[in-house]
Amino acid sequence: MNEKIQDVLLDSNAYFRFALSIHPLLKELFGESPQYSLHVLAELDDEYNTSTRLRHKFEWVRNSEYRQDRQAKRYELRGMARSEALNAASFLVSYADSRQLNLSREDLKALAVGFVKQVPVVTDDRAMQEVAKAHSIECWNSVMLLKVMVTAGRIDMDKVTEMLEYLDYENDLPMSKNKLRKIFKEYFETECPI
Questions:
Q1: Domain holding 88: CATH number?
Q2: What is the tally of structural domains in the chain?
Q3: For all residues of the chain together, what is the average pLDDT?
C-alpha cells in the first residue's frame, strides 16, 4: 500500500479556476507514488466573503457542495508549525514590501505555509512566483497542476481542453495565451487546444 502523500496547496485563484470544472476538487486523493492531496487555506473563505467582486464572479463558491469540499481539505497549521508560518509570513511581507510587490495576506500566508511545510503552492500570480523563487518555495503554475492531474489519472485531456476553453471564454486564462501555449507545449509535448 502506498503511504506517500504529496500535499499541494492551491492559492485562491487556482481554486477558483479549477473547482467548478473538477468537482469535488479537494476531497479525493489521486495518483500513486505519490498520491496527491490538494488543499486550500481557511483564509480563502475570508477573502471570498469580504470581496464583492469575487462573490459576484464566482457565485457557485458559496454552494454547500463546494463549501463541504473546502472544509474537508483546509490546510490549517497548529502549534510550532503555525508559529513558524507566522514568522515566515512576516519575513515574506517585508520582502514583498521592499520590492513593491502587491500581495494579499492570503497570498503571503500560502507562501509561508509552502515554505514551512515544504509543499508546492499552485499560483499563476507573478509576484507570488517571484517571492517563491527568491525563497526556494516550490511553486507550480496551473498548467503544471493540469499535467500532474493528467499523468496521475485524475483527469483526461478532454477535461483539460474543456477547462481551457471555459477559462478562455470567461477571459480568465491563468496567463497570456502566448505564454500558455508555450508552457502547455513544454509540459504536454503537444499543441495547446486553444
A1: 3.40.50.1010
A2: 1
A3: 94
